[in-house]
TrEMBL record:
Keywords: Cytochrome c-type biogenesis, Membrane, Transmembrane, Transmembrane helix. InterPro entries: Cyt_c_assembly, Cyt_c_biogenesis_CcsA, Cyt_c_biogenesis_CcsA/CcmC. The keyword NADP does not apply. This is Cytochrome c-type biogenesis protein CcsB.
Amino acid sequence: MSWLGAFFLLVSFACRGFAVERFPLGNLFEFSVAGAFFAMATFAVAGLRRDLRWLGVFVTAFVVLLLMVASTAWYVEADEVVPSLKSYWLPIHVTVATLSVGIFVVGAIISALYLMSDRGVGSERFWRKLPPAATLEKLSYSLHIIGFPLWTFTLIAGAIWAREAWGAYWNWDPKEVWTFVIWTVYAAYLHARATKNTSRRTANWIAVAGFVCIVINYTVVNFYFIGQHSYAQ
């Protein structure tokens, strides 16, 4: 079912592209559809090597919620993008950013489950259906270790694109700043995860904080901060 869901999301993404006659990653609505696809695809691919049926309900719930918000609050009619987005960097930079966010979504869900299982939140019957806490923690790490290099590429590619579009690699744009904040938080997570003196619980709290920063970046920053990325609303 996860593959079927990913397929329909990909079809929806492609249909949007045909409707707007461009690469459909020019605003928050389109980014949300792509992010939902990558989250579902990440879950499906990860499930090829292990039984992750227990995770499906959580990933699906997130994807459905995201699509509901995107379709009601963030939907915009098909239209042209601003001139600065008419670049070969759009499908490169934004696609990799969306892919990394999709991976971070699944990683954050697993980190949250690990933190709750570590504290015994909820019924014992529920947790018996899930893998042990140590397995959850390792699975979350295996996803974040993939997502972080992709986000690093996003940051670097964005700087190169900014140089071509606006004449400088760094402009202190709110979106640029928060992209770097997200990178820093996930770097701190990986450092904490590799440090023996830091507990796995602390490291996973940092991972969850990284995802909270992503949510802030694509909601609060998009709507309440004026900058060179304001067209992404």
